[in-house]
Design goal:
The chain is mainly alpha-helical. It is 76% helix and 0% strand. About 4% of the residues have low confidence.
């Protein structure tokens, strides 16, 4: 006899399959695993060293899978960034021209990021065929990622401003209907969560631009002092990454959007 789960269970399963069946959804699951497993490993006692090492390796494998996904393109990678540069496809309908320029500039930073990430992937998988300094290339790629985040923070600030102007205009015109108000409020909540994700991203991105000597050396010089202030413990890197991954999964399932809300005027 087939199983007869409750309606709520069937709906939850249907929603999960619908979301995880996309590249975006599956990437979210892999991101959670890539941070959660190493974080759990760090809590394991020394007597469980075999389990500890296995969890770290699994986490590393899931992280490498995500790099492979970006190598293949789809919603990630160079093809999508080039499409945005040519067609402004990720502007999201915002009228502020500064937002458009920021979004396109972000894609230019990714033109620096992705080739370096692909090189790191190749050098890690086949070091004899690609004898590259993957540590240096990885740090350099994260410099582009930091730039991407900083630009996005500013672009999101401009989105906030435009949303506020939109709400003010609707109030003045007497067009702030319940439906329009709900759309603006939903957009506002989406931008709040998106901003929080950027804030969670940034410390790790800066941390990964540092070399290992900067991360481990104590404050012996002003330059080392600056570097060490941004260096994070491993558990903190994984905790921040996991927090962002969980929040990102929630926003994906919730259908959050940072595009300009479609208002009935």
């Amino acid at each position: 006899q087939p199983l007869r789960p409750s309606i709520s269970v069937r709906r939850a399963m249907s929603a999960w399959l619908d979301r995880s069946g996309s590249v975006w959804g599956y990437d979210k699951a892999m991101k959670i695993a890539s941070y959660l497993l190493p974080l759990v490993a760090q809590t394991c006692p020394h007597r469980l060293q075999t389990l500890k090492e296995a969890l770290k390796l699994f986490g590393s494998h899931f992280s490498m899978y995500r790099v492979t996904t970006r190598l293949g393109g789809s919603p990630f990678g160079l093809p999508s960034e080039l499409d945005n540069i040519i067609n402004s496809s990720w502007v999201g309908g915002w009228k502020d021209n500064v937002i458009r320029r920021c979004v396109i500039l972000q894609s230019y930073t990714m033109l620096g990021y992705y080739p370096l990430e692909h090189a790191v992937w190749a050098g890690t998988i086949a070091p004899k065929l690609f004898p590259l300094d993957v540590a240096t290339l990885s740090r350099l790629s994260c410099v582009f990622w930091v730039l991407w985040i900083v630009i996005d923070i500013y672009a999101t600030h401009r989105r906030w401003q435009e949303l506020k102007r939109m709400e003010t205009k609707l109030k003045m015109n007497g067009s702030l209907t319940a439906n329009n108000k709900a759309k603006i409020e939903r957009s506002r909540r989406s931008l709040i969560r998106y901003t929080l994700r950027l804030v969670l991203y940034l410390p790790n991105a800066i941390h990964w631009t540092l070399d290992e000597k900067s991360k481990s050396t104590y404050f012996t010089s002003p330059s080392r002092l600056i570097s060490c202030r941004f260096a994070l413990a491993d558990w903190m890197v994984n905790a921040l990454g996991l927090a962002e991954a969980v929040l990102g999964t929630y926003t994906y399932v919730n259908g959050d959007s940072i595009s300009r809300p479609k208002i009935e005027e």
